[in-house]
Amino acid sequence: AQRVTQPEKLLSVFKGAPVELKCNYSYSGSPELFWYVQYSRQRLQLLLRHISRESIKGFTADLNKGETSFHLKKPFAQEEDSAMYYCALGQGGGSEKLVFGKGTKLTVNP
Amino acid sequence: GAGVSQTPSNKVTEKGKYVELRCDPISGHTALYWYRQSLGQGPEFLIYFQGTGAADDSGLPNDRFFAVRPEGSVSTLKIQRTERGDSAVYLCASSLEGGEQFFGPGTRLTVL
Fold first, then answer.
1. Which regions of chain A are under pLDDT 70?
2. Is the CB of residue A100 less than 8 Å away from at least one CB of chain B?
């Protein structure tokens, strides 16, 4: 069965500090991994996907198949990064359902 | 252009009633998805349409839930005999084939 685990419900850091949001997955096939973000009073939006290997808003995430992880990292957090972050797993191969983790609420304090 | 829209934004109903939730996808998007998000949880997949047909309805919890997309654009999620446990935010998303899923603002359903 496909499963996504985000072990931290809440994460609080100070502005300028590094931040890492953890995500582990369980899937027997070839996974597609995503990070979605939801800012206050806004809709859910894609932050990044592992196949694009981009850095978006200073965030990066590397797929580690050995550890079945896809942790989201940013070296210097900003106050505007405060939001809910969801890790999601797709089956790959096209437009298909996503399995989401429960989310991590990141708060960046001034 | 306009993003995914959902109506109503809020719906309060009584246990046992029937409700319909509407999703207008981004024009030209062939794929449409419904998810349900309960408090403190991530979105949970319900059903996925490719064009007019349901390509995967494995997430529908029981036969009280049904969704249609008759012309391959607008979709309606229908819930019969609502129960208090159906209370959640219902999210719709659309995408081009193989593309990024764009989410709507959701419909908050409250069953009293």
1. 92-95
2. yes
